[in-house]
Predict the 3D structure of the following.
Amino acid sequence: ETEKAIVFSLIPESDEDRIMHEIRTKISLYLVGRGISFTVPLTGVSEIVAGGITRAASEKSLDGSKIMTDETRKYDLIVAAVAAGFAEEAMEAARSAGAAGGTIIHAHAMNNAKAEQFIGISLMQEQDVLLILTRREGKLPIMQALFEKVGLKTQAGGIIFSLPVDRTAGISAADEAAATEENA
């Protein structure tokens, strides 16, 4: 479907497995094509937010084996922020490099003189943000294709980066079967 709901939420790492299981079950994400859910580790956060998350998880102990590392992560989230009207061109470049699909968010950028000085270009007011969840081994070819087609030195003026992804739901039947076995 072209219409999607996107929900962002901060959760304690100790609750990831339980929350992902609930999302998978309640929204039937075990049926591929119903949507996807994933977690991204938060590496920089204000002290107030960190304190709230920590207090919420204080009664739970973290099992060190459940903490994701670069070796255990399977997916990355590629983010491409491009000038309005270039999202389809970006998605076409990503697909040519192996991306299965993506989500486009229409956004408004804030003018920031310091950021413009640092990057060396004028930031666009209207932007499209393309989100692509991909297997870790497919990330670099997709990012390279995006840089070439819609990167900073193109008319699209795109800023492309990736974020590590810890837990997923709704990606593939094989992943859902593995998640079901883990939660059993």
